[in-house]
User: What shape does this take?
Amino acid sequence: MQSASSEGNRLLELSDGLANIVERVGQSVVAIHGRRRIPSSGVIWRQGVVVTAAHTLRRDDGIEVTLADGRKVGAVLAGRDAGTDVAVLKLDGVELAPPESGDARGLRPGHLVLAVARGDGASTHADFGVIGSVGGPWRTWRGGQLDAFVQLDGGLHPGFSGAALADMRGQVVGICTSAFARGVGMLIPHATVERVADELLAKGRVSRGYLGVGTQQVSLPDAWIEKMKLSSRGGLLVNSIAPDGPAEAAGVLIGDVLVDIDGKACGDMSELHAAIGAVSIGKPLKIGLIRGGERVECAVMVGERPQRNACR
Assistant: This one.
């Protein structure tokens, strides 16, 4: 039977270990002043490059960053991507090492993690929790592709969006965000941040295919499925069309029901986003529609999604 003192020593070792992780990771975590009142957090991702949660930046200019040593420096927004909620800032004359990176795909429900943030006044903040649920690659409701679905066991404290999430090895497996689920913290995996940061640094935006339609998922009547030999029981009802967009140019009408793209069923938003990815930009796609109870087809030239347009 273990003594009370040995149990106490183990708790002290655990406590010291957690504090050491926070201290080490915290050297690469910054506070970002890109909105009013509470700053958000960010992570030194590469030399002179900071990543954060895009939804926390409410302006493009006049952004400042507070470093771990208390220095406040100006930052230039290299680009942001609402689909994955990743934004990249560039810092001049700042030589700080990024934290050790880890792989979010190795996380399992119940794994212990530490969120490390930085508040106003250069103070380091930490939150200890567990991974709530984990899944494979998934597409956000904003159209971005994340390399893994990782949900935390609760919400994020104010200022923790953009914070580093570290595993018990002290490796940063990604950054935190509250943008994708109300009241629940999510992880933007390291691999996703890396991929999106490369594209934002190269051209300031992430390219995605664009039809210029607003849609909602609907269930198709059995009579339609049987009559037109449809492979899916769902479709996408077109409820808005962007002026001068690809869909309008192709003759798509409000009230049409989108059922397939290039012969593949398109019964929900994930299938639509997958069909019009970046590789399809500038290419014609054959769109299958139901209009007035009859099947029609049209060819749509896929465009590049405007950065500030709510239509898909």
